[in-house]
Amino acid sequence: MSRYTATTADDLQAMLAEIGVASVDELFDAIPEPLRLTRQLDLPEGQPEQAVYAHLRDLAARNVSAEDEISFLGAGMYDHYVPALIDMLMSRSEFLTPYTPYQPEISQGGLQAMFEYQTAISELTGLPVSNASVYEGPSAVASAAYLAKLANGKGKVVVSRGVHPHSRETLRTYAHGFGAEVVEVGLRDAVTDPEAWAGAIDGEVSAVIFQQPNFLGAVEDAQALAEAAKLGGAGGGQGAAGGEAPTDSAVVIGAYDPIPLGILRPPGECGVDVAVGEGQPLGKRLDFGGPSFGFFAATEAYLRRMPGRIAGETHDVDGRRGFVLTLQTREQHIRREKATSNICTAQALNALGGVVYLTWLGRRGLVELGELLLQRTAYARAALTAIDGVELLHEQPVVREFAVRLPVETVGEVERIAARCQERGVNPGYALGLDYDEYADGLLVALTEQRSREEIDRLAATLAGALAQTREEVAA
Q1: E strand or H helix at 357, and its extent?
Q2: What does the alpha-carbon distance between residue 354 and residue 308 come to, in Å, rounded to a whole number?
Q3: pLDDT band of 293, cuts 50, 70, 90
Q4: Most CB atoms closer than 10 Å: which of 100, 225, 273, 349?
Q5: Is the model's pTM score more than 0.85?
Q6: Measured between alpha carbons, how far is 293 from 297 in angstroms, rounded to an integer?
């Protein structure tokens, strides 16, 4: 028996006898035989703890963190500075250890943190209602599409090709489950093709989804996309139960990077009905991809269909301020036939880090951060396009991320050039051809406040050197 398992063989037999079965195998009789594994797991022999630790250390050494190289990777996850204040507060036991606050009388701190987080997200997006977070950005996009399907009963979702590839993939998976057709609209000059967008929207469209800025870093005309959806999606549909939400037009869903919202018009001012996004840039380290959290905000019309849970402010019988779980749409809390969400928990601890980060940064700090990213991104664009053979993939306005074309033909060549840069301690960005066949020569470069002008200059010099080495090899 493992030293981490307190159960002895005698304990096991006693439990089996109490249940009324003769063996552990008998517990699984209800599982059809073809679905059972009839052999032992193919695992190596056990090793002493010291040997296992050494092996895991060797595996970990293969990884390279953003602290070990100068990283210009982005594509949805960004190397922002995380102040020590966030870890300090998130590590406090009253936030770190509790689960869902079923008993509000003993969960006031957690509930207040949720309420403050919701308030911050509402202010950030310009939308009146926010939930207490969801898992991450892609599932937030898919959940918003499901909300639209519930609200108007229509069966088609229109999504821009500028939306993150992972979000589009998650959307298709969810849509298969709730019986919706996903129609993808292409890009023109690196932004959503306005004519194709308008042409795809008809009376059967449940929701339209775009990303701001889009995956190529380009700033979309959010208001124009929303207006086109409102005009083109009129009519049809079954109507929303109870009349809570409008049914005469498609639900406009915007997937937003939260950091640029310090300088871009918020979704609430652009006609967006539901704003979602990835919360990792708000005080979360990259941590090799997770965990993070997703944010979800909407107009009041969709309040009762939002996934997850919403914390609310109230007063007790003595007039004292208090907090409760006001709305919960998952079946664990309400009757299954009334449930509109299968989200069985939220990322409350990570969301706490998000509201601490926004509070630490402040209103003016968020604006200053956005302005800094604008300046450094413009500097980086100029530095990279000064390299022989490198040109902009598009000339649309950008905030913190932009794309260039390298003088190569395949995504494999882009990856090899990137690998050569990494050998020199610089990760130049993301190979766009991994997700977009039409941009096989594309490199997506991201900036954060961690990247100085000196590091941008080093990126340009390193990329130029890698390209020169490639040319020499081809010539040889």
Answers
A1: helix 348-385
A2: 17
A3: very high
A4: 273
A5: yes
A6: 13
Mean of pLDDT values over 33-46: 88
DSSP per residue over 269-296, as a string?
GTT-SEEEEE-TTTT---GGG----EEE
Residue 233's pLDDT is what?
60
**Residue 155 corresponds to which tokens in the numbers above?**
């069966």
Over 70: is that where the pLDDT of 2 sits? no
**Of 102, 429, 217, the residue nearest 110 (C-alpha):** 102
Token pair, residue 424, equals: 């020199």
One-letter identity of residue 396:
Q
Q: Dig out the tokens for 125 from the structure.
A: 């997006």
Residue showing tokens 């979702």 = 157
Q: Express as a percent the part of the chain with pLDDT over 70.
A: 93
CB-based contacts of 337: which residues, under 8 Å, 6+ apart?
none
Contact present, 223 and 265 (Cβ < 8 Å): yes
Mean pLDDT of the 430-447 span? 97
Between CA 133 and CA 293 the distance in angstroms is 7
Residues with Cβ within 8 Å of 81's Cβ and at least 6 positions away in sequence, in order, are: 448, 449, 450
Q: CB–CB of 22/16 below 8 Å? A: yes
Quote the CA–CA distance of 192 and 161 in Å, as a whole number. 7
State both tokens at 465.
């050197």
* pLDDT value of residue 235: 39
Token representation of residue 230: 């409102």
- Read off φ and ψ for residue 17, nearest 5 degrees: -65, -40
CA distance 426 to 69: 6
CB 160 within 8 A of CB 214: yes
As a dihedral over the C-alpha atoms of residue 131, residue 166, residue 416, residue 79, rounded to 10 degrees, the angle is 0
Nearest CA to 192 out of 178, 175, 213 is that of 213
Work out whether strand 191-192 and strand 430-431 pair parallel, antiparallel, or are unpaired: unpaired
Q: Mean pLDDT over all residues of the chain? A: 91
Annotate 14-67 with DSSP letters as a single string.
Answer: HHHHHHT-SSHHHHTTTS-GGGS--S----PPP--HHHHHHHHHHHHHT---TT
Q: Is the pLDDT of residue 325 over 80?
A: yes
Please say if the pLDDT value at position 56 is more than 50: yes
Which range has the worst mean pLDDT, 113-117, 284-288, 344-348, 385-389?
A: 344-348
CA distances from 227 to 65, 78, 191, 217, 346 (A): 43, 31, 16, 22, 32
- Sign of CA pseudo-dihedral 455, 460, 464, 467: positive
Tokens 């998650």 belong to residue:
170
